[in-house]
Design brief:
Layout: H1 3-28, H2 53-59, E1 63-72, E2 122-124, E3 147-158, E4 164-167, H3 169-172, E5 177-181, E6 187-196, E7 201-206, E8 229-234, E9 242-253, E10 263-266, E11 278-280, E12 286-295, E13 304-308, H4 309-322, E14 326-329, E15 332-336, H5 339-345, E16 353-358, H6 363-367, E17 374-378, E18 381-382, H7 386-395, E19 401-408, E20 411-418, E21 420-423, H8 434-437, E22 448-450, E23 455-459, E24 466-471, H9 476-479, E25 487-491, E26 494-495, H10 499-511, E27 516-523, E28 526-533
Antiparallel strand pairs: 1-3, 1-5, 2-12, 3-4, 4-7, 5-6, 6-7, 8-9, 8-11, 9-10, 10-13, 11-12, 12-13, 14-21, 15-16, 16-17, 17-18, 17-19, 19-20, 22-23, 23-24, 24-25, 25-26, 25-27, 27-28
Length: about 525
């Protein structure tokens, strides 16, 4: 067939097909239209994840924003500088070998512009917000007038219909006036009922007799499992009513903020301003109170820490009762039991708490607890580590009689102890008061100054020697190369585990007529000896 013939045939077939289609359409009496021959769009009938909308709708009225004002002097000459505060401990208070300090190097080098609040890296309290400038130093421009000004923002939540609100201590600690903002925008004045710096919890009260508030309850966090869904509601960057979701990432986290660290880690987005806000389970119960974040950038990276509801429930109950928390006090300085220490003492496991020194006239000292004892159990319940002992003792009311199991000289023995009273901060107490300084279950990084030598030390985290946390740049120690982050292993060939031990050895050297003491210093795994003068001070 010729090319022309083939073209004619195609045209004829095409025409007849169209004509036939038209005939069919017309003969059926339906409108003349051409239907699509394409396949249906993709649709997958898979199980859908749960929606958080019902939980959020129920709990949101109970979550508030907390605004704090303080009576401070204007700080115009301070620019955008600020003081980093971590549960009452500043940047300079942390030892150089502390695992968090390397993340704090950049604090103070970044401004606060555009709602970014604190700059820098590391563990942060996310409750402090924009507008938080540093107060002038004592004695500086004291003639300027004082006035209330905004210093912090955070989150909180109602736990009763008559207006009790839970938040973080670091949100309200320096405040003189407090305002809570409800999810409908209503602003109400609140007063501080009490606070507890050791657990970073505080209790506010709104006085509104004619109003009943929506409130939430604490969950049983012992039933919370890693992998469970959680929902965080709060006031990040001043954006009230913000909801984020995630899972429980881990439990029992110690972030170095205090002796009772036992945080729940979540991966829900938590930022500055979320502090004091609740983390809910899918039943609308509070499993934790957001208190800190880990952040190399200053913002959320998916690692946040919440105070467990079991801890919060007990502390808040005490604050509601009389505005303070009274804890049992044993009165011994303790440190972890490492594998090497356990081996040297003949212990099977590296568990329990090693007594570095009992405080003079403390309940522990009076009961006969000595240096080198290992506390293995309290009332028959095994002690995991130093933090566990601190929490266990603090959970008892003062004047409680307990049985303390000890490992001493290769033998197990039990001593009865009547606990003392470790009172918490009162509502307006100075955080440097005696009960804070004399806290028996102190964190392993609690510092002791050796002024005569120009150094400050703290027990090393691995239990071996002492970490140098600060060196006076004008001291002989600095001139001989001592730096923060190094370790002191021994003094005059005697192993040391506390500042008190160094003091005793130096005093003995002075009595022996010596003018120097020989310090064994460890740097990056290798050691050297340094002779420091001791004839002054």
């Amino acid at each position: 067939m010729t090319k022309f013939g083939r073209s004619s045939l195609k045209m004829a077939l095409k025409a007849s097909t169209v004509a036939g289609l038209a005939v069919v359409m017309l003969s059926t009496g339906l409108p003349a239209q051409v239907t699509s021959s394409f396949a249906d769009p993709v649709k997958v009938n898979a199980p859908q994840p749960p929606s958080f909308a019902d939980v959020v709708s129920a709990v949101s009225p109970a979550v508030v924003s907390v605004r704090v004002q303080s009576e401070e002097q204007p700080a115009a000459d301070e620019g955008n500088n600020f003081s980093f505060n971590f549960n009452g401990r500043g940047f300079d208070d942390l030892p150089d070998d502390h695992p968090l300090k390397r993340f704090f190097r950049e604090f103070g080098n970044q401004g606060q512009g555009q709602g970014q609040g604190q700059g820098g890296r590391g563990q942060q309290k996310p409750g402090q917000e924009q507008g938080q400038n540093q107060a002038p130093k004592k004695g500086q421009n004291d003639n300027r007038p004082h006035h209330l000004r905004p210093t912090a923002q955070g989150s909180g939540f109602f736990i009763s219909e008559d207006g009790y609100i839970v938040t973080n201590n670091h949100v309200v600690s320096d405040g003189q006036a407090f305002t809570v903002v409800l999810n409908d925008g209503t602003e109400l004045d609140a007063k501080l009922v009490g606070k507890d710096s050791r657990t970073d919890l505080a209790l506010l009260k709104v006085n509104a007799p004619a109003r009943k508030f929506t409130y939430v309850s604490f969950a049983d966090d012992t039933k919370v499992r890693v992998g469970d869904w959680v929902v965080a509601v709060g006031n990040p960057f001043g954006l009230g009513g913000t909801v984020t979701a995630g899972i429980i990432s881990a439990r029992g986290r110690d972030i170095g903020s205090g002796p009772y660290d036992d945080y729940i880690q979540v991966d829900a987005a938590v930022n500055r301003g979320n502090s004091g806000g609740p983390t809910f389970n899918l039943n609308g119960e509070v499993v934790g109170i957001n208190t800190a974040i880990f952040s190399p950038s200053g913002g959320n990276v998916g690692i946040a820490f919440a105070i467990p509801s079991s801890t919060a429930k007990d502390v808040i109950a005490d604050l509601m009762k009389d505005g303070k928390v009274d804890r049992g006090w044993l009165g011994v300085q303790i440190q972890p039991v490492t594998k090497d220490i356990a081996d040297s003492l003949g212990l099977k496991d590296a568990s329990g708490a090693l007594v570095v020194a009992p405080q003079e006239n403390s309940p522990g000292a009076k009961a006969g607890i000595k240096e080198g004892d290992v506390v293995t159990a309290v009332n028959g319940q095994a002690i995991k580590d130093a933090r566990d002992l601190a929490r266990r003792v603090a959970a008892f009311p003062p004047n409680t009689k307990i049985n303390v199991d000890l490992w001493r000289d290769g033998k197990q023995q039990t001593l009865p102890v009547t606990l003392g009273n470790l009172a918490s901060d009162a509502a307006n107490a100075d955080p440097s008061d005696s009960d804070q300084k004399d806290a028996a279950p102190a964190a392993p990084a609690s510092e002791k100054a050796l002024a005569s030598l120009g150094i400050t030390v703290s027990p090393a985290q691995d239990g071996n020697g002492l970490s140098v946390t600060d060196v006076d740049p004008d001291s002989d120690a600095a001139a001989r190369g001592l730096k923060s982050g190094q370790k002191i292993l021994s003094v005059n060939n005697q192993k040391v585990a506390s500042a008190a031990e160094i003091g005793k050895l130096i005093e003995q050297a002075r009595k022996d007529g010596r003018t120097r003491a020989l310090f064994q210093i460890e740097v990056d795994g290798s050691s050297r000896f340094v002779a420091l003068p001791i004839d002054q001070g």
